[in-house]
Amino acid sequence: MTRQRQALGLLGERIAARWLRRSGWELLAHRFRSGHRDIDLVVRRAEQVAFVEVKARGGVGFGHPIEAVTARKRRELIRSALVWVDRFGTAGETYRFDVIGVLVVGQNVRIRHVEGAFEVR
Fold this sequence. Notes:
The protein has 2 helices and 5 strands. The mean pLDDT is about 90. The protein is of the alpha+beta class.
């Protein structure tokens, strides 16, 4: 991964975290690591915990950022989330997987938040 892509990814995560906090979510973890996998953001609002994958792009030439969450990535997120729940989960919490796409074009930023983007099967 190039430094430029890495920097865009970090920027996207910061933008998404700020957007979520303004929407009433509490940030529990940023880049929670489980082995070689990570969850970009873990957030809570009331008893709802969301595991959030953030995808940032500098344009739509390769599609919208939301489309970049593959089946393999979903499986990795589920595995990491199970570790997080085992370590930090509490009774009464509900869990879901969200995806936030951050499109950064020049000074313009567009955010698309897909709540409950996928489920554990």
